[in-house]
Design a protein that fits this description.
The complex is a heterotrimer of chains A (124), B (219) and C (286).
Chain A (H helix, E strand, L loop, with lengths): L12 H15 L11 H7 L4 H13 L3 E4 L3 E4 L4 H25 L4 H14 L1
Helix pairs in contact in A: 1-3, 2-3
Chain B lengths: L1 H11 L1 H21 L6 H25 L1 H9 L4 H30 L8 H42 L2 H14 L1 H9 L2 H28 L4
Chain C lengths: L2 E11 L4 E10 L3 E5 L6 H8 L7 E6 L2 E2 L4 H5 L2 E4 L11 H8 L8 H10 L13 H13 L5 E5 L7 H15 L5 E6 L2 H7 L2 E6 L2 E7 H7 L1 E5 L6 H4 L2 E7 L2 E6 L2 H7 L3 E4 L3 H13 L1
Parallel strand pairs in C: 3-8, 3-9, 6-7, 7-8
Antiparallel strand pairs in C: 1-2, 1-4, 4-5, 9-10, 11-13, 11-14, 12-13
Helix pairs in contact in C: 4-5
The chains are: A mainly alpha (124), B mainly alpha (219), C alpha/beta (286).
């Protein structure tokens, strides 16, 4: 699992970490039932406060991505396919909304946006 | 706990302890050799007073050099009262040492007509407990420098020499023989108990006062 | 998550200085940095926590237990590193250890030897001959060799070169890996905290100015630079503090979006702990 945090980004640290973990889960790099690293060692390795990791883990659990068992650890949730799919869609929808908002402020029309989308999607 | 603090006191004043032990042996020898007519308990009194003040002074001096060390020890599970007790136990140890040395010297020299009996020993104990019992709380409260002032006066008075003391005592004895004969009538057993109790009382009160003072002290 | 240390309503007065209503909590598994300029009350607070000085009022709880009534039991679990001159310099390190060790029921000679080796300290060396860095390492050795669950350190890094400082920080993080531990250290060198602190408590003039997670501070506060002319009474209030020169202003704010709405041409950067600390202090003075 690759977690890279940027100190110069505007996004809060915990959010960067959370999103990258969710990314890893959705891409399958972290499979269902896989354990997440312990809070302390994780915090140490990526040089962030334990409190931040704790918040990340709490939110991941709240949002259903992980389950934690006291004394054992935190694991990627199993059988939450619906949720994950919804999450995937949700994530993309969120990005799309951001895109649309930006386009509107820059006076780019829906047609232009769609055209741009067609071109860029093929480029990958 | 307390014993470790006593060990600490000995450790920080290592050099002085050695010197003091020698002085304690030397003092009575000197007195007995230069003024053999002195009543037996006087050299002993000198031994004890000089030994106690010397050693305890030396330790207090070392402590005063490194005042924060006490802070570190008190930040550890050593209690304030343990600190105080350690000093008082040290006093007892010195006294015990003096008793042993004195007894050994008596056996070796074997010339003193007025050998030390229990009453005299307890009397000396009481005197030194009173002196020390007043000195210690003063040192705890006001620090070494001011307490030293008191100590200086005591040392001065005592080092005026056996002669002055002997004169005073002789006159004292001469004038108050009547009272003393009455005292002498009291059985030595009772005297001993009174002296012992008085010593314990003064010792205990002084320790309590010192503990109270030290508990409130800023470290 | 339990609290390792809870200070509530601590008050203490000296002639020229007082601690006023100092309250804070240290959560478990956190390194807490106690920051403030010289004379702000850090050492006084620590001494009050350790019972080295009498407090006028307030409660201090360690591991959930009251310090006054459980003093010995709690001190047994606390490792202490104090600033200067806390040893009998005439003694060797081993002799000093022989005085301190018996006070702690959890003392481990094995740990002691390991740390002495790790720090390359010769136990038979006289303390008076040690450099400042070595003295601190020795103090740390003593503090870490009795199974302490809480480390309290007063300015452990001041006067040390960067290499020794980073060694100390590394030891701190290693210590925390054991779990169930806490570290509370005071410093005015905030760059050390940038690296290891989880929580930050700022004290100034004997009062606590803030008690926040370090990442929270760094995530939410921004350093904003812009044209002085763009400042007005209204948007000045958005900043903790503003410093202006003829060439522009620099301000610290946690209301970035509002600032962006009010002033268009600005540079935004992440602040350091020091920036935030100074902004709080300077801002509070006005």
């Amino acid at each position: 699992m690759k977690i890279l945090i940027s100190n110069s980004s505007d996004k809060p640290l915990y959010q960067q970490i959370k999103e990258q973990i969710i990314d890893a889960i959705l891409k399958g790099e972290l499979a269902e039932g896989d354990p997440l690293p312990s809070i302390r060692s994780f915090a140490n390795d990526i040089k962030v406060s334990v409190l931040t990791i704790r918040r990340v883990y709490d939110e991941l659990e709240q949002e259903g991505f992980t389950t934690s068992q006291i004394g054992i650890g935190t694991f990627v949730s199993t059988g939450n396919v619906e949720l994950l799919r919804d999450s995937k869609r949700h994530m993309v929808e969120k990005k799309m909304q951001e895109l649309i908002d930006k386009a509107k402020t820059l006076n780019i029309t829906k047609e232009e946006l769609n055209a741009m989308m067609d071109i860029l999607y093929e480029e990958d | 706990m307390v014993l470790h603090l006593v060990k600490k006191d000995i450790l920080i004043a290592k050099k002085f302890v050695f010197v003091a032990m020698l002085v304690v042996i030397a003092v009575p020898l000197l007195i007995m050799l230069t003024a053999p007519s002195i009543p037996g308990f006087l050299p002993f009194l000198y031994m004890v007073v000089i030994g106690e003040l010397l050693l305890l002074q030396a330790i207090s001096q070392e402590e005063a050099k490194y005042p924060k060390a006490v802070a570190l020890l008190c930040a550890a599970p050593y209690t304030r009262s343990a600190f105080v007790k350690a000093k008082y136990i040290f006093f007892i140890l010195i006294f015990a040492y003096c008793c042993v040395v004195n007894t050994l010297l008596m056996l070796v020299i074997n010339q003193q007509p007025n050998s030390l009996d229990l009453t005299a020993m307890l009397a000396v104990l009481l005197v030194s407990v009173i002196i020390y019992g007043i000195y210690m709380p003063i040192e705890f409260k006001y620090g070494l420098v001011k307490a030293k002032f008191v100590f200086m006066i005591a040392i001065f008075a005592f080092s005026l020499g056996p002669t002055i003391f002997a004169t005073i005592f002789a006159n004292f004895f001469a004038n108050i023989t009547i009272d003393f004969s009455a005292l002498a009538a009291i059985s030595s057993g009772v005297k001993n108990i009174v002296l012992a109790l008085a010593s314990i009382a003064v010792f205990g009160i002084s320790m309590m006062v010192s503990t109270k003072i030290f508990s409130k002290k800023e470290l | 998550m339990s609290n390792i240390l809870e200070v509530t309503g601590l008050n203490k007065s000296y002639k020229d200085f007082s601690l006023t209503d100092v309250s804070f909590t240290l959560p478990e598994d956190c390194i807490t940095g106690f920051i403030g300029v010289n004379g702000s009350g850090k050492t006084t607070t620590i001494r009050a926590v350790l019972g080295l000085t009498q407090k006028a009022s307030g409660t201090i709880k360690v591991f959930g237990k009251d310090m006054e009534t459980n003093e010995q039991e709690l001190k047994n679990r606390i490792g202490v590193v104090l600033d200067e001159g806390y040893f009998y310099d005439e003694l060797t390190m081993d002799e000093m250890k022989s005085i301190i060790a018996p006070a702690y029921s959890g003392w481990s000679d094995k740990d002691y030897k390991e740390y002495m080796d790790r720090f390359s300290l010769n136990p038979r060396q006289k303390i008076a001959t040690l450099s400042r860095g070595m003295r601190m390492k020795f103090a740390l050795t003593l503090a870490l060799s009795h199974g302490a669950d809480l480390l309290i350190m007063d300015e452990p890094t001041s006067g040390l070169d960067p290499l020794v400082r980073s060694q100390l920080l590394e030891i701190m993080t290693d210590y925390m890996k054991q779990g169930g531990k806490g570290v509370f250290f005071s410093t005015h060198i905030t760059s050390d905290l940038d690296k290891v602190a989880d929580m930050l408590i700022l004290i100034h003039g004997g009062k606590i100015l803030f008690e926040k997670e370090k990442d929270y501070l760094l995530d939410n506060y921004r350093l904003v630079k812009g044209d002085v002319k763009a400042l007005n009474d209204k948007n000045r209030k958005l900043f903790l503090n503003i410093q202006s020169t003829d060439f522009g202003f620099t301000g610290v704010t946690d209301k970035l979006s509002e600032v962006q709405k009010s002033i268009s041409d600005i540079i935004v950067e992440r602040p350091t702990i020091e920036d935030i600390m100074l902004a709080y202090i300077e801002g509070g003075r006005k």
